[in-house]
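Action item from last week, closing it out:
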Amino acid sequence: MSSPLDEQAMSQLQTQQSELLDKIDELRAIGVGGLVELPQIIVCGNQSSGKSSVLEAISRVRFPPKSNICTRFATKEEQEQQKLRAFNSESFSSSGDLPTLIENAKECMGLSSTDPSSTGFSDDVLKVEISGPDKPELTLVDLPGLYYSSSNEQNEQGMEIAQSLTEKYMKSSRSIILAVISARADYHIQNVAQSFDPKYERFIKNEKVKLQLGWHVLRNRSFETRSISDDARDAQEEEFFEKGRWASLPRDQVGIESLRHRLSKILLGHVRRNLPGLIADIEERISSNEQTLAKMGAPRTTLQEQRHFLVDISSRFARITNQALNGSYVDGFFGGFKDHTATTEESPFRRLRAIIRELNECFAEAMSIRGNWRIIQFPGQPTLVEDVEQERSKPYMDNWTPQYISQESLVDEIKEQARQSRGIELPVAKSHLLNTWSSVEYFIQLVLKNLTDDHTRPLLMRHLIGPEMEKMKESLLAKLSELTSYFKRGHPLPVGTSFLSKIQESRKNRQVSALKRNLCLPGSHLPTGEDTRNTFDVCDLERARSQLQSSSDQFAAAEIIDQMQAYYETAIVTFVDNVAILAIENCLLCPLEHIFTGKTVLGMDDQQIQEIAAEPSNIQKDQERLNEELEKPRKGRQTLNAFSIADSSLRSRPILGIYISHIGSWNHKLIEVPFQQDR
């Protein structure tokens, strides 16, 4: 729509870098604003605080003059995909035509004041375009005013809609917020400002509350002067600020003309700061859609196309799996820059070899601590309760309650029964195998999530990979049963010199200790030939030997304990290695390399191929939709490629606050605009 409106007001929003702002408008025109957040100016505040008056002063477009009319919807200058019902684009040639246009829009939006079911507010958008020679487009959003009590004209549902609509626009990190605060109410209770800056660090700068960038003061029309022209309004404002104490204020902080300049400068700086992030968002949107399209694959209506689709997925699956098992994380699946499918929780599980290694280490540590059935407590050895509590926090150690038995009690038990067969159970080993299997299954799910769409992935798991994974689980548990079977037979076969050395050392220490007790010698070593402090005759030695013979049963039981301890220390290392190699590597990881390859697909019959790879009926529509969506960000990227961004400084949202005051008995509406750059 074109209109002969006052061009001077809008031209003040231009800068020497208007081309940059024009590029943002081009993005909005091609629909990029519906995909990523674009810079815009938001006017918000409590109801009847003067938001629309600020918008009128900036744009010189008049809004409905009725005193009981407030903004009922967001007025936003952006291309909308859905048109309001029964409302066609209308042109207006003067600012006086806009109120009539808004009233017509309200009727079409269901905001009729005579309809008792109407909430009075809408989350739809009324778009008003102001065009003219050499004018860059500027998005000005006049949001509904917030109110906190219901009335006949404004119910509670409308209050929630107004609050939700305001928050929706304010949450945009690329919105410049003009928070309008009326002086009729203390600015400390302005909820909009407080919700986004509880400490008011970014607002009013005076002796009580600081605002980093100061004020901007406007004099708006009063009720009596509401009908005067825009030129008259600006003239009265200029005259007002040249008198009294207002004359002492800096000229760049008062009046609508300087506000337009400041807005232009703020918007330009805001656009420049956000441009790198905007480009990154566009690139991310393009990459995300391209990945989704890649997962869908090419159209596959024939059996040959379906088989080719599965061959392509299987080859990539095999490559990623092979790298994961070898610990060479080269593929983008393991953390590539353009991969947007991974979450923080998923990322560690993609590095499968590292996960398996960590689980094996936790298993080895757990077996060294709780692998034996009972813990022998030797004389003088305390029971460390604190250590037990600390160990319980480690993997595979939950619900662990060690059973202690003194050496003396165990000796007595062994003397009564040389050997008692017990069924052996290794819950830690079983938990470790099942946990490792679950980690592999989760890894497979992550790979398929990266390679294919939500339709094909469950079909692959259900018809192909899932059954093979169940076979691998059965093989794991069967291997564990095999590894523990010789323990159950009760005939351990220790081999190697380390076991014999441990037995001999324990036997020697036990005999020396017994002989010293019989000879009443202190210490842990027998006296040497040079030690003459203790001498023994033949009778003493004979008596000591007799006592040793009389306690042969005791020595036999102790010998069994020594053998048990030595065997356990040797066998536990072998068992842990066997679980890691013979069970996990041979029964789980090696078959994983061949669970889904090109050879697997070639061996599938036609029915299996169709069950898994047949294209769903809606896939073509989804592909068309994604291709259409890709056109917008691609055009946006092309639009911004001409710029070389040297300044990549702050990208956070700047805040521009508006404060409206009534001074003394004057019937003037003043707008004080505190500026703040969000840091």
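Closing note: DSSP finds 21 helices and eleven strands in the chain.
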